[in-house]
Structure formats: C-alpha cells, structure tokens
Design brief:
The complex is a heterodimer of chains A (235) and B (300).
Chain A (H helix, E strand, L loop, with lengths): L3 E9 L4 E10 L4 E5 L6 H9 L5 E6 L2 E2 L8 H4 L1 E4 L11 H8 L6 H14 L1 H5 L10 H13 L5 E5 L7 H16 L3 E6 L2 H7 L2 E6 L2 E7 H6 L1 H7 L3
Parallel strand pairs in A: 3-8, 3-9, 6-7, 7-8
Antiparallel strand pairs in A: 1-2, 1-4, 4-5, 9-10
Helix pairs in contact in A: 3-6
Chain B lengths: L1 H31 L6 H19 L7 H27 L7 H23 L4 E2 L8 E4 L4 E3 H23 L1 H11 L1 H6 L4 H26 L2 E2 L4 H15 L4 H21 L5 H15 L14
Antiparallel strand pairs in B: 1-4, 2-3
Classes of the chains: A alpha/beta (235), B mainly alpha (300).
Bound molecules: adenosine-5'-diphosphate and magnesium ion.
Magnesium ion binds next to helix 1 of chain A.
Chain lengths: 235, 300
C-alpha cells in the first residue's frame, strides 16, 4: 500500500478550476516528482495536501483519510512542507525557524538532536544559527525551509520548487541533500519546474499540465520521453 | 528645571498608559493587519467591569493594593472575554473577506459597544472606586513622587515584562510571532492559527483592561464614551511607533504622554488633543512606517 495516496483531487479558485481530478501515489522510500510548467497547478496540489486551501477528493496518508483534517493537524500526522518561496519566518533566527518545524513535538531531547542533524546536513545553517532568517541569502533560506520541514519528522516530505531562483551550484547542493535524506529513508514528494534535476533523482514522476496529469513513469523513462524532452528539457 | 522633572514624571505615567492601549492595537494589527476600532470600547468595558466588581464586593471605598489587584483582575477578565467574543463572532467570519469589510465591521462593533453601554450603564459618568490612597511617597521639595504615578509605573512595567516574556520565551508566544510573520506557513507547522488569534485578542484586551483601571484610578470618572479619546491616542501612539511593532507601541505611547504633558505645561491645554494628530502627521511625513516600523508594512 502506498504511503500517500491521492485520488481525484480537485481544487478551484474563484474563477478557475486549477486541479481537475488528479490521482497519484507515493510509496515509502521513494522520491516522486511532480513536474510541469509555470501555472500547471503544482503549488496548488501541495497546498491542498497540506490543507491550507480547500479541495475535494481523497487524500490518504498511511491509510488515514486526511480529507477533513484541518491544516494544523496534518504536519503532526506526517505531511511537512517546504513551501514555494521558502516561507521562512523572517524575524526569527535560523534556530527558532527550525524549532518551529518541531512545534507540535514535545520530545525536547530528540528535537535538539534533530536540529544538530540539520546543521550536519547544512553546515551553513550552523554558522548562521542566530541570524534572522529574513537576512539570509535565497539558498540559505531554502536550506532553512527544508530543514524546518524535516524537523517535523514527516512521513512524506513535501518540497515545492526548492531550486527556484537559486544559482546552479546551490541547486546542485540542495538536490544532493534531498537525495541523501531519501537514501536515509525519507519519502519525498518533489515539485519542480527544473525537470532535468528533478527527474534525475526521482524514482517516479508525474507530468502536470494545466491541472491534469498527462504522463507518468520512472525518472529515467521520462528523461528519455520525447514529449518531456521537447516541452520540459528544452532539447 | 524642577518643574521639568515633575512634568517628566507625570508624562511618563500618562505615556505608559497610552503604551498599554497602543500594544493592543499593534498586536492585533501585527497578526491580522486590522485596525481594531473596537479596542477603545473594550477598554471602556474594562473600566465598567472593575466598577461593577467593586460595587458587588463593596470595594468602592477601601483603597489598597488588594483592591488594585482585584479591580485589575476584573477588568482583565472582562476585557478578555469581550475581546474573544468580538474576534470570534465579528472578525473571524470575515477573515478572508476584503480588508475594507472588516474595517467597517470594526467600526460597527465599536458603535454597538458604545451604545449598548449607554443603554445598560446609563450615559451619565460614574465615580470610579478609590483604588489607592493618593499620597506623596517621596518629596524632593519641588519634585514629588506620588503614589498613583508610582503605582501606574510599577503596574505597566510588570505588564510589559510579562508581555515580553510571553512573546519571546513561551511556546504560545513563538506561535504568535510565527502567525504574524506568515500565517499559512505557521499552520503548515502545526500551529492552530484560530487559537493563536483568539489568544492575541485576549492578551491585547487584557492590557486595555489594565489601562482602564489605571486611568480610573488617576481620573476617577468613567462613562460609556471614555474610550474615544484615549483610543485615538493609543492608536496614534501605535502608528507613531510603527504599527505592528511592540517596542514601537511602548515608545509611541511614552512620546505621546510626555509631549502631551509638556504641551499642557509650557504651551496651553487647548492644544492637548491637537498634539496627537500634529505629531502623527509630522512623523508620518518623515517616516511613513513609524519610528520603529518595518519598511513597506502594509497599512489599512
Ligand atoms: N490564489 C489564487 N487565486 C486564483 N488563482 C490562482 C491562485 N493561485 C494559483 N492560481 C491559479 O491556479 C493555477 C495553478 O497555479 P499554481 O498551482 O501556482 O501553479 P504552479 O505551482 O504549477 O506554477 C494557475 O493558473 C494560477 O493562475
Ligand atoms: Mg508553483
């Protein structure tokens, strides 16, 4: 059974039907990516998973139905997100941002250990632990956002465009870390416009086109798919 | 010179009361980007809560620290409940509505409270209970430290230290900061945003309740419209300091109190209330986001 199972997900904004009944699943230990052009509905999908916008359909996490669960109860159940644009708390230090990721946890000693683990993954953050997150560079903020989501010890880590607006070197570093936490057992649902990078580290992927899933396959299959190459890899 | 020191003391005492009111405006603004126009009437209701508790317990004429503490508790509880109800029933249903709708609702709630109070309590002023003996604690000749001013300062300093502790050292305080910095992401982290917003109204309203008792103690006459002017001054103090900023609210309040005292002392009491707006206009010309405000803060 899949760890995350989404069936017939629909999201509408005032005037537009942004997600038109998509279904996908993520198995334990996988990196699954959702790729698609700007405006395809990737962020909308992740927001619906986190419950911060209303949706219809079925979202099942480890067999539990999340459809009626309010947003603030979804992180404790195992869905933690690094949102698009990072969404760090700008007036909190790096350390406090990480603590916020563990807001619903009460195992203080373990939280401390996890913060150290994040510092191990991103040594930059250890150096900047008491700096206000709003004053960090984009890449550093992305590291904070990913670490903060990891602090919730999610069942599925949701990442919305971690490469957005970052220099290629930083992007490579971030993807390396994503791959590393996956190898250590973390299940990841990755949303990306940067299809090449995403497909390279993905076990499976879905292509989202104006609110519908148009293609799915393994990362390698999609990397070699002609449509994908033409539309998303610029070849 | 000695006169000046005396005015400094008086102005600080007045200003710290403005600061308490300003904190309520700035906290709610910081979290909802809403000017809570009903705040001044919550303050008024705080004075009446304390007044009726004193009647009920026969404390009208038994000044002392115990009376002060009881009245503070009554006003804080009364204001908290009212603040909670206003948020829950007037603002929460409109959380996603355009800002203007909420603003108009806030004005509506304010008027509702004022007129309800006139009907329930009567429009005539009432004499606030005697909270503390008005005595001179220390007499330096020309400069006197009066018990009431000292009490005002002690109570406000305790409140501000408590608020500081709450916001920066407790879990709910951290949640409040998170919600004010990014509400959506805070909920993604497991913060129950509705509960945090309710709690913010409780804290802000309690501070207004404290302000009401301190004002009642110094100027013992209360009436259903008593919130209007002090509300405006608290609001101006908040904007002056940079709305959304807690230290800004305290600084703004003190500046307002001190300049008001100085204007009355050295110019004329006619200008007392004009001063608030004069100051506001001048500061906003030179620093549109207030003294300690963040640049580019959205204003309602
Ligand atoms: N808050 C919103 N209100 C109305 N329409 C929106 C809103 N957010 C996104 N949309 C629309 O929904 C569609 C999907 O957007 P989004 O999920 O952000 O795409 P992506 O993340 O793939 O770039 C777009 O057409 C976008 O214009
Ligand atoms: Mg997006």
């Amino acid at each position: 059974m899949s760890i995350l199972d989404v069936k017939n997900l629909n999201v509408s904004y005032d005037s537009c039907h942004a997600i038109k009944g998509i279904s996908f699943k993520v198995d334990k230990g996988e990196v699954v990516s959702l790729i698609g052009a700007n405006g395809a509905g990737k962020t909308t999908t992740l927001k619906a998973l986190s419950g911060v916008i209303p949706s219809t359909g079925m979202i099942t996490l480890k067999g539990q139905d999340l459809t009626r669960v309010p947003a603030h109860q979804r992180a404790p159940m195992g869905l933690c997100q690094s949102p698009e644009g990072r969404g760090v708390f700008p007036l909190m230090s790096v350390f406090e941002n990480l603590e916020m990721g563990a807001y619903f946890r009460s195992d203080k000693a373990e939280i401390k250990k996890d913060i150290e683990k994040c510092y191990g993954l991103f040594p930059r953050l250890a150096e900047r632990r008491s700096q206000l997150a709003g004053t960090l560079s984009g890449g550093e903020q992305q590291m904070v956002a990913i670490s903060r989501a990891l602090m919730g010890r999610p069942e599925v880590l949701l990442l919305d465009e971690p490469s957005l607006g970052l220099a290629p070197r930083v992007v490579a570093q971030i993807f390396e870390i994503v791959q590393k936490v996956n190898q250590e057992g973390m299940t990841v649902l990755l949303v990306e416009q940067n299809a090449r990078m995403a497909l390279k580290i993905s076990h499976r992927a879905y292509v989202l086109e104006t609110g519908l899933i148009s293609l799915e396959g393994s990362g390698a299959e999609l990397l070699n798919n002609d449509d994908v190459r033409r539309s998303y890899l610029g070849i | 010179m000695q006169d000046f020191v005396q005015h400094l003391i008086n102005g600080t005492s007045l200003g710290s009361i403005y600061a308490l009111i300003a904190l309520g405006y700035t906290m709610v603004y910081g979290i909802l980007q809403l000017i809570n126009f009903a705040h001044s009437d919550v303050y008024m209701m705080g004075a009446f809560s304390a007044y009726y508790l004193a009647m009920f317990m026969g404390l009208q004429n038994s000044p002392g620290v115990a009376t002060l503490a009881s009245l503070l508790a009554a006003a804080m509880i009364g204001c908290s409940l009212l603040g909670l109800a206003i948020e829950r029933f007037a603002y929460r249903p409109l959380r996603k509505a355009p800002k203007l709708n909420i603003l108009i609702t806030a004005i509506g709630v304010s008027l509702l409270l004022q007129y309800s109070a006139q009907i329930i309590f009567g429009a005539d002023p009432k004499v606030f209970p005697k909270v503390l003996e008005d005595s001179v604690l220390i007499d330096f000749g020309a400069v006197q430290l009066k018990s009431l001013d000292v009490a005002v300062l002690i109570v406000t300093v305790i409140m501000m230290l408590a608020l500081n502790f709450l916001i920066f050292k407790t879990k709910i305080g951290k949640a409040m900061r998170a919600v004010s910095q990014n509400m959506t992401v805070a909920s993604m982290m497991g913060v129950n945003v509705d509960r945090v917003i309710s709690f913010t109204f409780v804290v802000g309203s309690s501070l207004a309740g404290v302000g009401a008792v301190l004002v009642g103690m110094k100027y013992p006459k209360i009436d259903p419209l008593m919130g209007t002017f002090i509300g405006i001054k608290g609001f101006v103090a908040a904007v002056l300091g940079g709305i959304g900023s807690l230290p800004g609210a305290v600084l703004g309040g003190l500046l307002m109190g001190l300049s008001e005292e100085m204007v009355v002392a050295y110019l004329s009491s006619t200008y007392r209330d004009a001063l608030a707006f004069g100051l506001l206009i001048i500061i906003l010309i030179f620093r549109p986001s207030g003294l300690l405000g963040k640049k580019g803060v959205e204003k309602v």
